User: Fold these one by one.
Assistant:
Number 1:
Amino acid sequence: MASTEGGVKEAPRARTLSEEIYRRTGRQPARCYQCGKCSAGCPMAEETELRPHDILRMVGLNQADRLLTAKSLWLCAGCETCTARCPNDCDPASVIDELRSMAVAKQPDTLPRNLMAFHRSFLDQIRAHGRISELGLMVSYKLRTGSLFQDATAAPGMVTRGKLHLGAPSISGVEEVRAIFKACEEEER
Amino acid sequence: MTIGYYPGCSLHGTGREYDESVRAVAGALGLTLREIDDWSCCGATSAHSVNPLLAVVLPARNLALAESAGMTDVLTPCAACYNRLARSEHAVATNPELAEKMPRLLGRPFSNSVHVRTVLDVLRESLPVIKEKTVQPLKGMKVACYYGCLLLRPAEIAGGDDPESPTFMEEIVKAIGAEPVTWNLRMDCCGGSMSIPHAESVVRLSRAILEDARSAGAEALVVACPMCHSNLDFRQQAYTNKGETTLPVLYLTELLGLALGLNAESLGLKRHFVSPAPMLERMAVAAKEAV
């Protein structure tokens, strides 16, 4: 609470991570009682330093510095198995999404290069065309990461099977889509 | 019956045979698909990874377009698109504050009146017609029904099925005479869009899924998601190169199309990396013997 004692105004207390996540999602990460069911079903748990229940615990302990720079956040495949199985409705998948969004805003220099390059290339495609051109996505991603040869041998096979379109898609509502990006970016700020 | 149709970006590209087989099967079953005019990308994994609000509003544009075109139901064959559209529908339905903001964020009227549906949900409703129109029952064919994750998410909806013990896909393949095997990994994630930025994870996950299906005796893996298909079919190219055994991966609608007597080419079966041809020949021989 702000105090006016002695005429000096105390800065309002910053929200804790739990409070911030509650404000954004309406979910209570503090209700997590560490049963570990989320991590038991997580397909990525064997590759990540932090598993879903670790992340929930660290949110409870307000460890923003460690969490927002953790690569583990970006290794979440988004399958929502954790959320489907949480007995306390903590929704770990949405908690991880919110943490990623906070990391993009506050710690842009610490984000894993390839994973961010993918997301940025993907969203750029939508902003440019309203839809994804898979070829455009791959080219943009490869230019961002320099991984020119990863899966490059796949391209001829994709073309002969009629799976790779060379032209960019286009829709007449592309300006409307761009306005949605703008409105959401302003609202999230 | 006429139903709204949201193909999504993959079905216009790497998942082309899914689009072809959905349309072919719908036609054979007397379902008219009406594609949402000027639809846009749902935002997929990337929107929710960096801006959770964008992840609700981008898919909602398609729901708003469908609504203004007078549609009540929208079929979304891609499991990843389904997840984003259904999550958007659910988020707006359960959050009045968000619902109020939506028309402003979308720049168009929106009352969230459209219901998003999976291919499993829509096909299961047509089970009597499917049974009636099956001319080539897939008798004795052992298949592993693979749900993966997003067909059953958000879990509150789960495409109308049970999120932890789904049965829709097994019901459909049984109706055309095939035999679903019992196996362990039918609801485990294949790694989805990690395929590009973190391929090693997808290689690990898809290998486990294919091995489990094969050890349960499956002759083919059946899917209803273009990302699962790509991760499980295309990634097996590496197996072929090393001389390892492969397992054909078919879209549920391709399998269904075969039973309905549609030709393999119109179903896009030639577009796979692991050819289903040897399996189809075995099937044809079995059918002849049965006569």
Note: Chain A is about 50% helix and 0% strand.
Number 2:
Amino acid sequence: MQGNIACAEGALTAGCRYYAGYPITPSSEIMEHLSNRLPEINGVFMQMEDEIASICSMIGASWAGAKAMTATSGPGFSLMLEGLGYAVMTETPCVIVNVQRAGPATGQATRPGQGDIMQARWGAHGDYRIIALSPWSVQEMYDLTIECFNLAEHYRVPVIFLADEVVGHLKESFIIKPEIEIFDRDKTISDKLFGTVTEDGIPPMPIFGQGAKLLITGSTHNEFGIRKVADPIIQDKLVKRLCNKIDNHKKEICQTESYFTEDAEYLFVSFGISARSSYAVVKQLRNEGIKAGLLRLKTIWPFDEDTLKSIAEKCKVIFVPEMNRGQIVLEVQRILCNKKVVSIPKTRGEAIYPSEIYDECKKYLK
Amino acid sequence: MSEHLYKYLRTDVFPTPFCAGCGHGILMGAILRAIDELKLDFNKMVFVSGIGCGAWIPSPHFATDTLHTLHGRPVAYATGVKLFNPDLKVVVISGDGDLAAIGGNHLIHAARRNIEMTVICANNSIYGMTGGQVSPTTPKDAKTMTTSKGNPEEPFDLCKLTHACGARYVARYTVYHVKPLINSIKKALTTNGFSFIDVVSPCPTQFGRRNKLPNLFEMLTDIKNQSVRYETAKQSKKEELIGKIVIGEYSD
């Protein structure tokens, strides 16, 4: 099955019953597939007039009770950022798939890139946190899409699925596990729709029509949803909780995979399709007797600092291959500020090849 | 507002934020009276609004589900709400800048799709909240903070626009014509499809005082004098309708 189709099927397994989107290469197979599948199971498919309308209608559907998703690529993701900020502020669960292509601007529509990593984290205005995952296989296009929905519903936050053209159009067989954990939001009616006793809590989320008299706004609001656009304490409390509810739960949210890292002297830190090429390089180096290892980030944001620190502790050099001019490497350098961290970037609108990573890292191996 | 309508309101958020002389309070009352007369289940209604003075009519005042969204996007949000739960009655209340400028694309596509919702444009011909800049419905030659020598552009006729796009019910009234406005809202709320009402509402603070209509009385008198019935307008020459407010239900 193709990666994009696996993503669409994963969404349905997770309980997605609303999709709104706008055609864009290389993500369109997701919407094409769902345009047929959703009506079969009483779900709603909607092709909107643009990406702004897509994310907004998805947020509306989420408050009407739907597990909702949209899919796009860089240019569309740029348009969705205002809706992303709104979903953060109103704590609306939803999933945004970004099948990344080479940018900036229209760039190379059919060619892969990983240039939206920092945009996903920082793109909307104001201060906030989101969750972002990155798949390296068709298996994960299925599995991690489900995980995106579970995280969105659990933390009441938009979750961004940072795929890329290679994984999106890759065809592989994969296994559907017999038991899949699905999380559904807590719809208990509470007057405190936007506040918790703790500073990092996630309030329950009733839906429209339940009689909860929901008062939802993208303006700064108190725990009851009432606009407080000039109150310094309420602004501070809200922004802190929006950040804390992600930061303080990193241990539960973050997923990484480590390969040959126990005795590694040379560590590769990568994600998505770049991690797959990195894995090939690590195995080749091990065959040559070089102690190389790979830390693969399944969760990109929030960044798993603790795991990186502990694995990298005994490593001599850390390599960060990625299909951009060096984005995740900035995070790695910040966290491992006393280590030798080497960026291996590629922006040719094609997958980063194992041979390219191999040739570059060889310069640093002793 | 009459106390029998208090059951629809979050009275704890009073007073309303509207300026002295603002017409939006009359519009708020007209909407609630229409709902009351129709005996609609208020708990099954969702009010969606954008950003601006008009968007504050339902949020936070209406004591049911309200979604105060991004500038220009309420119709897109409302589309998602209605499509996922068709049992909900979805009403968009927002201003002319919100629905006709930044949100114009969403408005015309929702009308074209004939999605069942009622869109009420609280049309005060100005960006009130941001301090009185020209909007797509500001009359030609009117003075605003960004057209100090007079508006050089022609205004949008939102009724012609939505009607041409396929809206099932289209009407324009003013807050001066309260009774026909209430009846029109009742018709819109019971329309099986997309309904749109352009409600001309005075803004003495940002529009009137820069255009020789400095208070509510003068603005309402002007609105009354400029209003022409749709049936009369159909028989009139184009030149005769310059600066006029064509009120009534739009039909083919």
Note: Chain B has a mean pLDDT of 97.
